[in-house]
Design goal:
The complex is a heterodimer of chains A (53) and B (136). With 53 residues, chain A is an alpha+beta fold. Chain A has one helix at residues 25-30, and strands spanning 3-5, 16-17, 34-36. Chain A is elongated and about 55 Å long. Chain B has 1 helix and 10 strands, in the order ββββββαββββ. The chains are: A alpha+beta (53), B mainly beta (136).
């Protein structure tokens, strides 16, 4: 999982954030300090059921 | 005469977030619990060191704005947090050591401490965790 800095309190905004050991990532995301760069893998299209009988 | 004067630039980091501009006080106390080892025949009490139980207490202005006090602390209550303090914002060195408590416990978060005609300030205490100090 990759993160980018979203608040100057953590570093330069836009830079990649490498969390150190012991850092609570969820708290940083919830507080708006970092954002995850991974994209959703959900498809917009519903999956067709090809096993119709 | 040796003195340490804190004018305006100590650095306080909570969960990697620099909160220095919201802090007005930081007290980092290294404490090792005493265990009494006095035995028959002694005429004074004696103690040996037990578990370390260091603490960091910070006084901060309370703010609910983005990236400020509440946003930093709200998800940390009841969790283990890494906190760091150093005397000045200069590079870490033997004369500007950075003290760290790793996995220190944050038990409580005052939500509002409102008084008429005064800024809202809160005291946060981090207890326990592993103490370390960096000098480079």
């Amino acid at each position: 999982m990759a993160y980018v800095i979203a608040s100057p309190r953590l570093g330069t905004v836009g830079d990649t954030y490498e969390p150190a050991d012991g850092v609570n990532i969820e708290a940083l995301i919830e507080g708006g300090f970092i954002k995850s760069t991974s994209k959703s893998t959900k498809s917009d299209k519903p999956i067709k059921d090809t096993n119709e009988e | 005469m040796a003195t340490s004067t804190y004018l305006s630039n100590p650095v306080v980091t909570i969960n990697a977030v620099d909160m220095s501009d919201q802090c007005t006080s930081a007290v980092f106390t290294r404490m090792i619990e005493s265990l009494e080892s006095t035995a028959f025949g002694q005429t004074n009490r004696s103690y040996v060191g037990g578990l370390e139980n260091s603490t960091l207490t910070v006084t901060m202005y309370n703010s609910f704005a983005a990236s400020e006090t509440y946003a930093t602390l709200k998800a940390l209550v009841g969790t283990q947090v890494t906190v760091k303090v150093k005397p000045t914002s200069a590079a870490t060195s033997a004369t500007n050591p950075e003290s760290t408590l790793t996995a220190s416990y944050m038990e409580s978060l005052p939500i509002v401490n409102g008084q008429l005609g005064a800024l809202d300030t809160i005291d946060i205490t981090f207890t326990g965790g592993a103490y370390s100090v960096a000098v480079a």
